[in-house]
Structures are given as structure tokens and as C-alpha cells.
Amino acid sequence: MSEPHSASTIPSRAGSMPRLSRLQAGALVIGLLGAGLSWLGMATDPTQFFRSYLLAWLFWVGLSLGCLALSMLHHLVGGAWGALIVRLLEAGARLLPVLACAGVPLLWHLELLYPWARPELVAADELLRHKVPYLNIPFFTQRAVGYFVIWSALAWLLPVLARRVDRLAHPDATRGLRRALQILSAGGIVLHALAVTFAAVDWMMSLEPAWYSTIYGILWLVGHLVVTLAGAILMVATLAEAQPLGNVARPSVAHDLGNLLLAFVMLWTYVSFAQFLVIWAANLPEEIPWYLARTQGGWEWVAITLVVLHFFVPFLL
């Protein structure tokens, strides 16, 4: 196991990097404009608004969860690749409590999103009645709270230990803290994987309660890693000339990040194809509609574009 590299040279505040401050200011303006348009959408079509809100919320939750997972991976195995982006990952993971609050409006309008949250549909569908012990609003809410408690606790504890390690320069003085950080990360990865799997079932797969896939949670988890690492690489490339990030953004580290991203892309492709292959081979009427709906009515071009850009093109870059 490689010795974790220190991240003490990476700035932890945006104020030390003027370019990052400008990017944040621009993002704030875009966010305010988006909020105004969102209010307009909610007033005109609440159902479509909350569907779009759920999609956007899941994207940003996934990005923060990817930050948490990658930071735990770095603390567990070490490596210069993680030292370069760990401050970005910690900042992204610490947004999870904010995102939990942003998800509260969804809890108030579950009946607009989920068939199992509408009593009249449950009463008329035997399958939905069978799933009531799990798919009901109180238990759904309790599970969501539990997920965010686990994630937020990890997102808070990991940086606390990591900064204590950074403040102690001598390796002998940090050996115990590094070990504690590795143990926390190892256990945290297991808890994180379980929580993400159940969250994927609750928040996404239950949108179509008649359909199921045992690999769906892992597919969502790997997707987090892909989008998070890609975003981190873009951020590093944008800020590579700024100091002190420029001191550690060496070509070899960028190469490591690119290789890791390619590995995650290949893993995502493998998991996606495994799910498709199993469902295609079984050809069961309760499973194939999920893919049929996503390969018709113009969506087939989205699927083809995803296959080309998300798998074949990365091998040419």
C-alpha cells in the first residue's frame, strides 16, 4: 500500500485563487437565474417541474457522493493523484447536508413523482400493494434521512482527520492518525456502497416500481465516480496555472488521473452492458419495457451517442 501523499500544499480557500473566485461568482449568477426560471416552471407545470427538479437534484447529489467516495479511496490507498484533488473532493462532499435540505421539497410532492405514493394507484395494483411495507412515505423518508446522516458524518469526519495529519510533519507522529483514517475510509466505503445502492432503488428505480435490476445501485455508484473525477480533472486543468496548485499539478499526476478516469469509464460500461445483457437474454415482460422506452421515440439516438462518446471516444483521446 502506498503512503498517502500530503495535501497540505493545496489551497483550502477560494480566496487564495482569484480565478476560482471568479468562477464561483459566475456560478452564483447562473444559479440565481436558474432559480427564477424554476419558480416560473413550478407555477406553470408542477408535475414536470418536480420531475426536472428530481433529475437535477440527483445529479448534484451524485456529484457530492462521488467526491466522498473518491476521497475515501484516496485516504485508503494513497497516491499523488488524490493529493492533487482531495481538497476539491472534501469541499464537494461537505455539500451533502445542503443537498439534503434541497431535497425536502421533493418529500412534499412524492405523489407527483412516484406511483406508490398515490393511494388510488396502490389500491388498484396488486404489485404496488405487495411493496407497501417498503415503499411507503414514512419509511421512505426515514431511509432518506439515514442515508444523509451516514454520508454527512463521513464527509465531516474525514477532513478533520486529514487536516490533523497535514499539520503533523513527521511521519512517525502521523502513523496512528493515518491508520485511523484508513480504517474509517475502509468502513466508510462499505457503508457508502450500501447506502447508495438502497438510495438508487428508493429514488430512481421506484419511479417504475414494476421494474427491477439488482445491479442498478452499482451502476449509479460507478456513474458518480465517472462524473466526479471528470469534473475534478476539468477543475484542475482550469486552475493548473494558479499557485500553489501549479506546484503539484505535474503531467505525471494528470496522466494518473486520466488513466483512473478511463478505468472508471470501462467499469461503467461493463456494468451497464452486464445489466443490458441479462435483461436482453431473459426477455421477461416485466423487465424489457425499461429498455424499450429508452430506445424508441428519439431516445435511441441518445443511447447511441452515449455508447459512442462514453466508451469508444475515450480510447481515442
From TrEMBL:
Keyword annotations: Membrane, Transmembrane, Transmembrane helix
Q: Which residues form the signal peptide?
A: none
Is the Nucleus keyword given for this protein?
no
Q: What is this protein called?
A: Quinol:cytochrome C oxidoreductase
- The transmembrane segments are 23-42, 54-73, 144-162, 183-205, 217-240, 260-282, 298-316
Give the originating organism: Tectimicrobiota bacterium
